[in-house]
Structures are given as structure tokens and as C-alpha cells.
Amino acid sequence: MDALELPNGKSNGHVSIKTPPPSPSPFRNSKFFTANLRILVTGGAGFIGSHLVDRLMENEKNEVIVVDNYFTGSKNNLMKWIGHPRFELIRHDVTEPLLIEVDQIYHLACPASPIFYKYNPVKTIKTNVIGTLNMLGLAKRVGARILLTSTSEVYGDPIQHPQTEEYWGNVNPIGVRSCYDEGKRVAETLMFDYHRQHGIEIRIARIFNTYGPRMNIDDGRVVSNFIAQAIRGESLTVQEPGTQTRSFCYVSDQVDGLIKLMEGENTGPINIGNPDEFTMLELAENVKELINPDIQVKKVGNTPDDPSQRKPDITLAKKVLGWSPKVTLRDGLPLMEEDFRKRLGVLKN
Ligand SMILES: NC(=O)c1ccc[n+]([C@@H]2O[C@H](COP(=O)([O-])OP(=O)(O)OC[C@H]3O[C@@H](n4cnc5c(N)ncnc54)[C@H](O)[C@@H]3O)[C@@H](O)[C@H]2O)c1
């Protein structure tokens, strides 16, 4: 990727520009302010967001505010923090402006599963575009650093494999997935425009398929589908041809990567994902072997624009964040099985 020429004549490459961002709230210097950081997590009641909140709350110096409209998230995911003096939960839709004082914004709000984002595509693109504009406006007003959880979907059906951050992608602009893919691409553009024009401190993570406890059951994402099917004793439905690949990152690794990115000096975009690549048939065989060897694997029709290959190149994350995933698929799947069994009420024989 070419280094970008900035209005002040400096180049940003992948590093934050030198223009000073707006000063953080003077409240930071108040004698009543005991926490080091007040952190906003949009979409914090969702799958990745709630794990991120758990990790941020472990640090006694953090105050965490979650904003969520509960479209795909749930208060249940945050139950253990409700009532905690360093925690606040606000029902709010990010497509509406938000006026609060914060130092950091993790902007995750957006449905991630195709079933949900295709259910209301107009709302999905509004969440990506207007929601990101609102959060950038907030970051600008209070001088907060903002991290966007973008996605590997910005690469579309990639011609380059594995995908590096320099790859510009191969995305259908008018397809049924475009509200999500193109929405995130515009969100990335907005982040960089606010960074160049207003000196906002930005961070962009391009998240690759992530899995773990608290994923919505039957949400159309392949790992949650397979695990729920295996626990219920149903056939595993592999979308044709079954040779399409994905790589799966366990949620604790993902959260480590996001926090390292927020705390580091690099704007990104940076791929955060696990480069171990599996075909859908291999994933099904792993789930079958680990969870229920008695079930069948059955092929079903595919959805339009399903990418045939997906694997992150994480050289940049290793180099600038010192991050790489630790949890293998065979270690992560049983942890997710335990959570799904509790929620489905099906005990292991
Ligand atoms: N899980 C993955 O594999 C994956 C992959 C790539 C990118 N991401 C990105 O990571 C983020 C979190 O994904 P997730 O898997 O936790 O999804 P999720 O659906 O579990 O969480 C999204 C959260 O955002 C909330 N939300 C949606 N629209 C909102 C709105 N308009 N206002 C306020 N809240 C809203 C939902 O209620 C939910 O709690 C998303 O931005 C997603 O695009 C996830």
C-alpha cells in the first residue's frame, strides 16, 4: 500500500499521523475521576463485544460503557457486569448520535451473521455508514481513539490468496451481501477521512471468521450451525461444493488482537485472524469426530457470492502488534460445545 500524503506534508504509511488529536475531556483531570480510561464498546452485548468487555473489565482502572440495540446481542452476555460500579449498559442505536465522554471507542455495532444482516439490508448499511459517522463524530468531539471492527469480507471473493492488507478486494457492489461488505468498506473510508482531515486517532481491525461461546445458536455462521446440529444429533449441512475454505480464530485470541491494536501505534488496517485453513468438509469432519461421531455430513445448495477461499496473512499483526493466535480449532471447538450444550439443555452422554 502506498504511503499517504497528508495536508501537513507528512506521510502516514501505516502509522498514526502527527497532527495532534483534540484534547481528551478535561474531566480526565478532575479529582473525581478515578479510572484511567473510560471505554465505550458499541455492540458490546454481542458475541465478540461481550468477550471484549469481560477482558476490559478485568483491569480495575477501566470504566466500560456498552451501547447496544440488542438486534443480535443480549443482556444475558453481560449479566455478570450489570450493577458493577465501573460498568454501564445503554440501550441505544448507533444510527442515532450519542453524546457521552469517553477516551476510547471500540466500534463493533453491526450484525455479523448473514442471516441477520440480510434480514434488513437497509438497516445494515445504515448501521455501517451512519453508525460509523456518529461514532467518528463522538471521537472527534471528545478526542477519543476509535477502533473499527472491519471484516475479511472487504476482500470479497479474493483473487489473491492468502489476503494481505494491501489487497483491495473483489467485491460485488450490488449483491445481497453488499450491505455488509460495502458497508464495512465505506466505514473504513470514513475512518481514514476523519483521520486525515481531523487528526482522529483511528485503528482498523479486519476480522476473519471468529468463533467461541456466546455465538447465537443457528445464526447461519458455519461453526455455530455445525455445533448446534452435532449436539442435536442432526446431519451437518455443508454448503456446496464443500471445498471452499475458511480459517477460524478463537474469540480469546481475537480479543487479545483487538486490545493490542487499540493500545499500539499502528492505524491498520490489520488482519486479525487465524491462518490455519480448513475446507468446510474438513471442518464438518472435525466437529463430527469431536462432538458426535454418529451423525452424517450432507451437502446442501450454497448462497450467492459465497467466497471460495478465505485465509488471512497475519505477517503485519505479528510484526507490529507482536500478536498471533494461540488456540487451535481442536482446542476451541470443545469450549464452544460446552456453552452450546448448556444453552440447548443437552448434556453430553
Ligand atoms: N464474528 C466474526 O467472525 C466477525 C468477522 C468479521 C467481522 N466481525 C465484526 O465484529 C463485530 C462484532 O461481531 P459479532 O460476531 O460479535 O456480532 P454480533 O452480531 O454478535 O454482535 C453485534 C452487536 O451489535 C449490536 N448492534 C447491531 N446493530 C446495532 C445498532 N444499529 N446500534 C447498536 N447496536 C447494534 C447487536 O445487537 C450485537 O450486540 C461486527 O462489527 C462484525 O462486523 C465479526
From TrEMBL:
GO molecular function, one term: NAD+ binding
UniProt keywords, alphabetically: Cytoplasm, Decarboxylase, Lyase, NAD
Enzyme Commission designation: 4.1.1.35
Domain NAD(P)-binding: 40-334
GO BP terms: D-xylose metabolic process; UDP-D-xylose biosynthetic process
Top-level enzyme category: lyase
GO cellular component annotations of the record: cytoplasm
Keyword Zinc-finger: no
Catalytic reaction list: UDP-alpha-D-glucuronate + H(+) = UDP-alpha-D-xylose + CO2
UniProt pathway annotation: Nucleotide-sugar biosynthesis; UDP-alpha-D-xylose biosynthesis; UDP-alpha-D-xylose from UDP-alpha-D-glucuronate: step 1/1
Record bears the keyword Oxidoreductase: no
Region of interest: Disordered: 1-23
Location of the protein in the cell: Cytoplasm
Gene3D superfamilies linked: NAD(P)-binding Rossmann-like Domain
Record InterPro entries: NAD(P)-bd_dom, NAD(P)-bd_dom_sf, UXS-like
Obligatory cofactor(s): NAD(+)
Protein family according to the UniProt entry: Belongs to the NAD(P)-dependent epimerase/dehydratase family. UDP-glucuronic acid decarboxylase subfamily.
UniProt xrefs under PANTHER family: UDP-GLUCURONATE DECARBOXYLASE (PTHR43078:SF7), UDP-GLUCURONIC ACID DECARBOXYLASE-RELATED (PTHR43078)
Function: Catalyzes the NAD-dependent decarboxylation of UDP-glucuronic acid to UDP-xylose. Necessary for the biosynthesis of the core tetrasaccharide in glycosaminoglycan biosynthesis.
Descriptive protein name: UDP-glucuronate decarboxylase
Natural source organism: Zostera marina (Eelgrass)
Lineage: Eukaryota, Viridiplantae, Streptophyta, Embryophyta, Tracheophyta
